[in-house]
Amino acid sequence: MTRWSAIAPKGRAAPARPDGLREFYENPAVPVASGAERSRRQALMLARALGPVRAGARPGTVLDIGCGDGSAAATASAALPGHRIVGVDWSQDALCRAAARIPYVVRGELGNAGLPFADGAADAVLFSEVIEHLVDPDAALDELRRVLRPGGHLMLSTPNLAAWYNRGLLLAGVQPVFSEVSMRGIHGRPGTQVVGHLRLYTARALRGFLAACGFEVVRIAGAPYHDVPRPLRPVDRAACHLPSLASILLVHARRRRE
Fold this sequence. Notes:
Elements: H1 18-26, H2 36-50, E1 61-65, H3 71-79, E2 84-89, H4 92-98, E3 104-107, E4 122-128, H5 137-147, E5 148-159, H6 164-171, H7 203-212, E6 215-223, H8 233-239, E7 248-255
Parallel strand pairs: 1-2, 1-4, 2-3, 4-5
Antiparallel strand pairs: 5-7, 6-7
GO molecular function: methyltransferase activity
InterPro entries: SAM-dependent_MTases_sf (IPR029063)
Enzyme class: transferase
């Protein structure tokens, strides 16, 4: 989970009390990183997509949008020697922490004036567990598509509404994990920490949404959730072999060429 602006992008109506949302995501107690295994799997997917930097060729530019503390970008950097990783976040506190892990950090956000990059500037975008925090994911994907070159790679991860345990919880009448009904406390579901999830996706919904936003889905994979109770972790890892049941959805998509 990363800290990212939940206010509406330009041209859209803002939600109630946007200042309160900003304060929530700037709170140091709100987590800015998710599990290391998710970051590792996502980095390997990206490394396979970009490949090594060839002699005489320019390095690829990878933007980690909503980089949080930079842990995911640092993992990606280790798997992508020679490529340039740029962490982007609107939280100054998060950027200060990210700067200790990666050489390039830029303050920017998906709303208001948009990201501070030219059209087609990026070869790849990491979008790690950000989309579930957005009021307007459609406008966010439009902006990511703008900064990606045609054929550029989008590596998106997000919690899976249809994770194996959520299916059982819903059958029992229990609020599913990852979903939240309040910004002040947890009600009706396992867990104790509010993290500000506004939207949740299944693999099928995410595939359709990305296609509607101008992306071609190359692959959907699964990743385990670091907060699953220890006795259930072998089951959670096994569920990754069937992404529609996995805790975390990892998506490799490409910007369609026009």
